[in-house]
Amino acid sequence: MSAVFATLERILAGEPAVALVTVVGARGSTPREAGARMVVTAAGAISGTVGGGRLELEAIAAARALAEAGRDTATLRRFALGPALGQCCGGHVTLAIEAITAARRDEIAALAVGEAAGGMATTARFAEGEGIRRTIVGHGPGAPTAALADDGTLTEVFGARPRAVYLFGAGHVGRAVVLALAPLPFRVTWVDERADMFPAAVPRTVETVATDRPETVAAAMEEGAFALVMTHDHGVDLAIVHAALVAGRHRYLGLIGSATKRARFESRLHALGHDGTTAKAFRCPIGVAGITSKEPALIATAVAAELLIEDEAARARRPTDAALIRLVP
């Protein structure tokens, strides 16, 4: 979950205590990675997940018990995911389960601000039976994680690291793509020449840009961005693709269309001065193979799947997340 402390703060506005479950250790085959988190209320309301199945049932029961007790405390639970839990993963998971009381709401609110500002790294001392008091030690984007050292030092990263996606075109497919990407780790800049094509409400991860020169947005995309081009006009599409290729900041450039459209664009890009390699440096058709429907929602599903594949591959090739966090002076 990407808004851990905002969720805790909201719950503590109306309840005396809430529990936070964090995967602080994961070895072998496990259902979730270190840094997966779940918020549990005394009544059993749940946000997030640490993996499902018997593991999660055990975690929820322990978390509810701590929240019901109504005092700041924490405990570790270690699970071997074998026959004892009836799960086939075979790995080992360590969970930190903590109860946080409403008396600490101001502290939680301050952490929520740091998390919302683009991510943060924290450190804390873990001691059985005591509350976990986190100190912010860095700011910046990083994949959520958690690690508990043998000496009890708990080091964590909070906040999402969404990939920037520039979506050019607000037609039927563009609208479907926006909805498909909304729950995924993407931050969308949605561009069209026609302001009235944007719906009245868009997901919170989406910013709309109405401009009669969308190619200027393509030329100024941030480094590592993904771009999807699907406007109402092939001439506009070409201008956007050309500008993106000249700037060279993107990591993925996709153009909606057929193999025939691709061939025509390659020829036109050659005429605009691109060499043989650059003129081919875009994806068209777009979307994972095997989905042939022309229904906008199904096209969007195929495109979203392709972007997830590209995003995971890109993350695997980039520097460690620790390098993205700026330490607090």
Helix share of residues? 25-40%
Average pLDDT works out at 92
Give the topology string: H per helix, E per strand.
HEEEHEEHEEEEEHEEHEHEHHE
- Strand arrangement, largest sheet? 3-2-1-5-4
Radius of gyration: 23 Å
Instruction: Choose one word for the global shape.
Output: elongated
Sheet of most strands: 5 strands, antiparallel
- For the termini, the CA-CA separation is 28 Å
- Helix-and-strand structural type: alpha/beta
Tally of strands: 15
Give the count of helical stretches: 8
The overall number of domains is 2
Give the DSSP E fraction (strand runs of 2 or more residues): 25-35%
Low-confidence stretches: none
Report on the architecture of this protein.
With 329 residues, the chain is α/β, with parallel strands linked by helices. The chain folds into two domains: 4-158, no CATH class; 163-316, NAD(P)-binding Rossmann-like Domain (Rossmann fold). Helix content is 31%, strand content 26%. It contains eight helices and 15 strands. It has a five-stranded antiparallel beta sheet, sandwiched between helices. A five-stranded antiparallel beta sheet has the order 8-9-6-7-15, with helices on one face. Strands 12-11-10-13-14 form a five-stranded parallel beta sheet, sandwiched between helices. Helix 6 links the parallel strand 13 (226-229) and strand 14 (252-255). The longest helix is centred in the last third of the chain and has 22 residues, at 296-317. The chain is elongated. The mean pLDDT is 92.
